[in-house]
Structures are given as C-alpha cells and as structure tokens.
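Quick one: structure for this chain?
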Amino acid sequence: MRVHKIYPKGFGANTYVLTADDQRAVVIDPSGKHVESKLLSLGLQAEYVLLTHCHFDHVIGVAGLQESGAKVGCLDKEKALIGTTADLFDAFGAPRTPYRVDFTFSDGEDFELCGIKIKALSTPGHTVGSACYLVESDGGRYLFSGDTLFEMSIGRTDFPTGDTDAIRKSLQKIANLPDMPVYAGHGEDTTIEREKKYNPFLQD
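Got it. Here's what it folds into:
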C-alpha cells in the first residue's frame, strides 16, 4: 500500500490518499479541490472517501470527488452533524459544498476498501462522531488520527459537540494501541510511542 500525503492549501487539513494497486484510491479528508488534480497526476481514481469528522477544512473537496463517483463514509454519530452549523462552514465564512454520506460505520467495525483493510475507531472529543482509522497493509499498521491526535498536541474541544472528558478517553484508547505511524489531520507525522513519551496530553 502507498500513502500519498497532500498538504493543505490555505486554512485546510492534511489529505491522505491510500492505494493498494496504484489505480483505485481511498481518500481520507479531502480538504480542497486541489486533491482532484493531485489524484489526476498520480493516475488514481478515488472510489471511496472517509471522513474523520465533518469540519469544513476537512471536507471542502468531498463534493467534487463524489460527483466523480466516489462513495463517502463516516462514523454513524458524525452523519447527523453534516450540513449543520456544527460543520463550521458558517462560523468561518467558508462557501458550503453540499455532499451526502453513502455509508456509515460503528466503533470497531472492520471493512475492506480497494483491497485495504480498515478498522474504524470511535474517538469523540473534537466532535461527537470523530473517528480514527486503523489501516493494516503489507504487515504494517497505520493510524489516521484526524483532529483527535497531533504531533505533540490534540484537537480543540471548544467547537460544537466538543468534549474535553471524551477526548481524554479517546487519547487513552489510542495510547493503548501498539506502536505505529500516526498520520494526523494537521501538521507532521508521528508515532504512538513518540506521543506517549513526549505529548503532555497523553501523560495523564
């Protein structure tokens, strides 16, 4: 499996493109229209889009990919927030780009997309339906943490449906996982062990 990291343009989030065959792709958090041109340059067709949560800076590119045939999925608890003020489009004055959710999943659910094995983990706190994705491929494990866990930091809890107590429990859930690379919604990559050792939010 290849992981292509697409850095944001402007006030956006990291986007991750996963492919097992260099043809079909799973896109995590498409943050803008630039994701479509990157996919084209890579020769990839997005078949699925996975959302870690519905905040505007993670989903601006969803509608375009959906129009091209991609199916969109998120955690079941997050679906109800999409298209509401909780997605922060209005709060930040961002032009809304409507899209629909084609499928949802629950905590701990395993599924396979484009030949890639994925487990959905419910990690509320940043939003009530925030998810992390645990991906297994070629004997390796990788965590896509959205805005739950960053390098040396964590996601905010002062937005609608945010919850400080909930994110603490979610961080403990992540800390109990084996060591693996962590691909965060913003900033640089890290590992679980590095964050357990140095991230002050994982010290308690």
